[in-house]
Design a protein that fits this description.
The protein is of the alpha/beta class. The chain contains eleven helices and seven strands. Helix 3 packs across helix 5 and helix 6 crosses helix 10.
């Protein structure tokens, strides 16, 4: 079975011009660990594969001798803060902005004797609704801006290394200071994680939160734990709060609560001193009779 799948993959890639006779191949993808590049490099072990990614985080597996990777965006080798942000923050959100309506490749098959095609799995919720109603307009805007940006960089003789800090800042803002519409789209998404854990995630169900719990969580430990669990499942902390607490109810209530707690803690030493002095006074009276 595996040999058959391998044979189909090799045949498909050969149709695209990749074989053991290829000296170098450039792989471009959004990121994050470059595992697809690793797997292809194992098959074509005589070929050097160079991966260029938007973001690249620390790989989980040993790297093949014929793989080389770099990222223009967050890069774990030199951008530790951004690496952590992408890993624990908004990587899934950035993936959403990069979705396409073509579906996910789940295998390959013969269309006829001489042609091998990719088998696609399409999620109607993710691809048709989210992409067509929202994401495609964002992507069209990005594409429309390319000509102007290219003209600007050419006119001012800017190098990619000079522009990169602004790219990192933009990604940082997108993730940490999300637009409400982006957060709304994300938490109505059915997210495909078939290459990760082999399933789909209904982000709306994973982020369901009753508004009253936002206020009650300030005084209720169990509700705080429920909210923390929901935040951890959301895969995008900042987006979760932007979507669920648009008016800032929880943040305001939390501030009041912690201000009161801090005030109470500040008075605690004074209370202890007064209690101690009281005990000393009582002891003194007993001694003196």
């Amino acid at each position: 079975m595996l040999n058959k799948k391998r044979e189909l993959l090799v045949g498909y890639l050969q149709q695209k011009g990749i074989s053991q006779q290829s000296k170098q191949v450039l792989v471009s993808d959004i990121g994050w660990r470059g595992t697809i590049q690793d797997n292809i490099a194992r098959i074509f072990n005589q070929v050097d594969f160079y991966g260029v990614y938007l973001g690249y985080i620390h790989p989980l597996n040993n790297q093949e001798f014929n793989t080389f990777k770099h990222a223009y965006g967050p890069y774990f080798v030199s951008d530790a803060p951004y690496f952590m942000q992408m890993l624990h923050g908004g990587a899934t959100f950035v993936e959403m902005l990069s979705t396409s309506p073509g579906g996910s490749t789940i295998g390959y098959e013969h269309a006829d004797k001489n042609k091998i095609v990719a088998i696609k799995e399409i999620s109607k919720v993710e691809d048709e609704y989210i992409h067509n109603k929202y994401v495609r307009f964002f992507q069209e805007g990005v594409i429309a801006s390319v000509a102007a940006l290219a003209n600007f960089t050419d006119k001012h003789a800017l190098q990619s290394s000079e522009v990169r800090p602004y790219v990192l800042r933009l990604m940082d803002d997108l993730i940490k200071k999300p637009n409400y519409l982006f957060s709304k789209i994300f938490f109505n998404l059915t997210y495909s994680e078939t290459f990760g854990v082999g399933e789909y995630f209904d982000m709306k169900k994973r982020s369901t939160l009753k508004k009253r719990n936002l206020v009650l969580a300030v005084i209720s430990k169990s509700r705080r734990e429920n909210i923390e669990e929901a935040v951890n499942k959301s895969q995008w902390k900042q987006g979760f709060w932007r979507y669920q607490d648009r008016l800032g109810i929880f943040s305001v209530a939390s501030k009041v609560y912690y201000d009161l707690q801090n005030a109470r803690n500040a008075l605690a030493p004074k209370r202890r001193i007064l209690q101690l002095l009281s005990k000393v006074g009582k002891l003194k009276k007993k001694i003196l009779g």
